[in-house]
Amino acid sequence: MGHGHGHGQLPADGSASGRYVGKLALALGIGASFMVLELVVGFVTGSLALISDGAHMFTDVFGVGMALVAILLARRSGPTFTRTFGMYRAEVLAALGNAVLLFGVAGYVLYEAIERIGSPPAVPGLPVLLVATAGLVANLASFLLLRSGAKESLNVRGAYLEVLADLIGSFGVLLSGAITLLTGWRYADPIIGVAIGFFVLPRTYVLARRALRILFQHAPQGVDVAKISAELAAVPGVIDVHDLHVWTLTSGMEVASAHLTIERDAESSDVLVAAQDLLSNGYSIEHATLQVEPRESARRCEELSW
């Protein structure tokens, strides 16, 4: 008869993001404060560079807020009999929502810049320069808070990319204010605004692509599923591997399932332990559901249409 086994329990908060709640909350507070400052001064002075950076700061605040809510939701709503994988995917959805917001802001900035390029308005340089300096300090603080978490969590990485884009944007606005103050050149403001928009787009694309890969349950990047199949097939006693699936639940949580057909005289428990160790030690896949089955039971799998 067949043997099904799940290796590795899903913890109440097993995602990599859970360790960064405090840092995300602090980054949220910093971003919200300077967002208000940038938008108010931007609209008062008519600075497109400052408005675009303030609008992007809004998506930064909104994005960090989504990331924080997603982590708390995943933490409070662990696996149940109706939500067997909990709410971990909320983090991935937050990252995708972040990307959509970034695309929207970049589009808005480019549109506004095209509208202004024919007759750029006069923008007072000193207020823009002062606010940009304050924004630069705020973004640098948030950047340092989230940098380590961005390496482990797609959700935190989404918030981190928001802050990174804001950091570069603050540099741009600072440069725009300095040029305007020193030379009075009106084109500095819309040009810097466009540069901020183009800087944001490729990083947004990468973030959206990574989030969609997880939502479509593609194999994790860097994981060779064909190699895993070959190595499982080489486990002593295994004669066939089928229905092999490897996917990411959320950042830092890779999951696998497979059917292993074994020889008649093979010990199923030994095969199971060897396969689990292979996935855990070789690929850091701790949660694997493996069905070990004799050749006779495997015939049913051949009859399935998908």
UniProtKB/TrEMBL annotation:
Keywords: Ion transport, Membrane, Transmembrane, Transmembrane helix, Transport. The chain crosses the membrane at residues 24-51, 57-74, 86-111, 123-146, 158-185, 191-208. Signal peptide: none annotated. Residues 220-294 form the Cation efflux protein cytoplasmic domain. Belongs to the cation diffusion facilitator (CDF) transporter (TC 2.A.4) family. SLC30A subfamily. The keyword ATP-binding does not apply. It is a multi-pass membrane protein. This is Cobalt-zinc-cadmium efflux system protein. It comes from the Bacteria. It comes from Amycolatopsis cihanbeyliensis. GO terms for cellular component: plasma membrane. SUPFAM superfamilies: Cation efflux protein cytoplasmic domain-like, Cation efflux protein transmembrane domain-like. GO terms for molecular function: zinc ion transmembrane transporter activity. It is found in: Membrane. Residues 26-215 form the Cation efflux protein transmembrane domain.
